[in-house]
Amino acid sequence: MTATRDAFEARLRQIGAERYHDRHPFHHLLHGGQCTPDQVRAWVINRYYYQSRIPMKDAAFLSRVEDADLRRIWRSRIEDHDGTAENEGGIRRWLRLAQAVGLDPDYVASAQGVLPATRFAVDAYVAFVREKPLLEAVAASLTELFAPKIHAERIEGLLANYAFADDSSLAYFRNRLKEAPKDVAFGLKWVLDRADTAEKQEAAAAALIFKTDVLWSQLDALYSAYVDPARIPPGAWHPGEGLLAKGAA
User: Mean pLDDT throughout 36-59?
Assistant: First the structure.
């Protein structure tokens, strides 16, 4: 049976309430100031891989869109991450965070040391958006519904607990507080308008669940490799690697 528009939106929001990665123990440690400098660095390195693939995911999506209006609206997401002449973009802001925590930005940008599970999960998300119907590809992006809360908590927690945190190093999160709401307002309306059968609603909900799994699995990998107990897999970053030369920050 097809749910009403309001009931289906409530279902999507409930998925976030139950499954979004703000509930993960790693984020509780990070936001509470309980991560070591190396655990923070590991998070920055691995999260960069996700950030760097978001515009690639969106480019893959755009390559399949025949509607010029949709392309015009969606391409701003690429510019938000890659930047423009007027906007440095989220990727450069993330690399500024990397430098603030003592990492060489070139090392982070190389994606050396990324955990295998991080790479696998993120690449699976890019493939999902490239291959699935457009409705499911857009629905997967609706984790943005829940992002402003985690960004606000992160800004507050990092500023309160870590010496590296300031307006410059946290610029990525402050900008996402402005950028994400416009993206998700469009994406949510687009999904609600088109998920007009029970089958389509099931597919859209499953896509959002898949995306929450992508985000959660990245933190599971971080926790396993660097927290309790630390079991760093072959090829992944080891503390002491990829650091800035003294005095270079």
Answer: 98
